[in-house]
Amino acid sequence: MRTDCHQHLWPPSLLAALRARRTPPRLDGWTLHLPGEAPCALDPTAHDVAARAAAEAADGTGRALVSLSSPLGLEHLPGEEAQPLLDAWHEGAVELPEPFRVWAAAGVTDLDPGGLAKTLRHERVVGLQLPATALADPRAVERLAPLLAECELADKPVLVHPGPAPAGDHAALPPWWPALVPYVQQLHAAWLAWHVAGRARHPRLRTAFVALAGLAPLHHERLAARGGALGPLDPLVHYESSSYGPRAIDALVRVVGVDPLVLGTDRPYAQPFEAADLPGFGAAFAHALTTTNPAHLLDGSPR
Question: What domain of life does the native source organism fall in (predicted)?
Fold first, then answer.
């Protein structure tokens, strides 16, 4: 089954909840306002459920895993403010048609592991997405142990996604700045923090880092030069491919191998690529990326 591990599709319930807000994060019609980014005009067709389902059918996608956009910052809001928004996400997302499945979301300021456990039991929920900003160092990973333990108990994975960009005056910055600077830095920090503090505490938890973890594993030589070590490859850590192409994928394969890589598109913010776009990788690699490796991420199936 071809699986796209990383997409975004906001159901009507979440759109309504964001439009009801008067402070960022909020929607004004189809203009998104966030504290750390310039106002952004969204394409309404990107969140047209029927059109998106048709696009997945045309691509032959068996499962498209949609998640709340962590750069919105909803998970970081205080519990009483975050919960109605997270509820709006879950209530709408689990009603999306085939081929969509759902990454759960959870507040990271006021933790509610019991509520997460209930959400994870839903048959259409594949696991939990967490913002990288909530996993920024080893102590932060330890703080989220109650949420991570619920995922481990449910035998469902965690997807690490960039969180909100720092608030500030972004008028002088190009619009791609958040995606290339804070998002990548967040993924680097979360990847390193997980290896320092996460695996030992959660030995059976499968994880995936979007956008190839911002290419963090490629820094293993610098890590060694500064007194650290990459160590043995962790077979339960995966790398989702969105926003990168053949050069980056080839470089990462040389460090971590083929088995950890899974397909993700970040649709509608990026578009899928096909095996033909990866010259020299071959059909076996395409099958591993789109089918075998995602199955291992989601349920531990043998590769």
Answer: Bacteria
